[in-house]
Amino acid sequence: MARYTGPRTKKSRSFGEAIFGYDKAFEKRKYAPGQHGNSRKRSTQSEYAVQLKEKQKAKYTYGVLERQFYKTFEEAARKHGVTGENLLRLLEQRLDNTCYRLGFAPTRSAARQLVNHKHVTVNGRIVNIPSFTVKVGDVISIREKSKNIEIVQDTLKAARVKKYGWLEFNSEKLEGKYLEIPNRDQIPENIKEQLIVELYSK
Fold first, then answer.
1. How far is residue 72's CA from residue 124's CA, in Å, rounded to a whole number?
2. Domain containing 110 — which CATH number?
3. What is the mean pLDDT of residues 97-103?
4. Which helix (H) or strand (E) holds 176?
5. Does 107 lie in the same domain as 76?
6. Terminal alpha carbon distance of the chain
7. What is d(CA 194, CA 62) in angstroms, rounded to the nearest whole number?
């Protein structure tokens, strides 16, 4: 399946934040891309444009294409509770995102590659589907044969592993346990999910 492979810093600058994770180049130039990005005044955007931009930001952040993103939205709408919050919870439950949160990889795209290349197990069984939904109680770990691969070791040494309330991480075993479905206030992504709900409700 096709994924965005263009310039990440440029895309982050268009949204005004480092949506792909820490970006040294973005920190130096936090203004819009283009010749006049640093001096250009932000024009007033229509309601539709604002909603569309928020949806695009969510898609790029989690690395999900339009068709899969809409399917996730439909699933969120069928669940009890607030649709927007359900959407973010489902995105957080993706296996590639969970591997990223656990610190197995520095970015979600790198975590997706780990999963695709069969380096990750769930409850002791190899899972190579990035969109696999992790459930409460599942144990996610790096395969024994893969524990010394460079990308995992480099990420752990760089101390990029952050603690999240819904995940329990064991650095010695290189495994994590999904403790609970996160609440909206636990999810750190700066996404206005209600705008996405309004866009799809039109």
1. 26
2. 3.10.290.10
3. 93
4. strand 175-178
5. no
6. 28
7. 17
